[in-house]
Design a protein that fits this description.
By secondary structure, the protein is mostly beta strands. Helices cover 0% and strands 48% of the residues. The chain is built from no helices and 11 strands. The strands form 2 sheets. Strands 2, 4, 5, 6, 9, 10 and 11 form a 7-stranded mixed beta sheet that branches. It has a 4-stranded antiparallel beta sheet with strand order 1-3-8-7, with no helix packed on it. It starts with a strand and ends with a strand.
Length: 126
Amino acid sequence: QVQLVESGGGLVQAGDSLRLSCAASERIFSLDAMGWFSQAPAPGKEREFVATLSWRGGSTLYADSVKGRFTISRDNAKNTVYLQMSSLKPEDTAVYFCAASTWTSGSDTSRHYNYWGQGTQVTVSS
């Protein structure tokens, strides 16, 4: 069973940067996309789309709230996807989950992703 392991979260101040990493335990057969979702620490809050990257074509899609501040990238050889987060805001505070899809690329919908990591906490203080 493929595992996704996130790292790089932490506590930072507003305006700081962080880089999240997500490594797959093995090459994912028929991988179409890898992406990032976030879940804020509020009761009933659902996972929200952050960014996704098409594994074959390399195209990217971002949530409006992170455009111009976050960048998703990959290292094919390492089966790893990154999320460079800049100009962080307190409202970016959340658990960030890495996800992979063998069904579709370019999706901002969590149900289209069939592999998930355990999440890494990002806390941005004001």
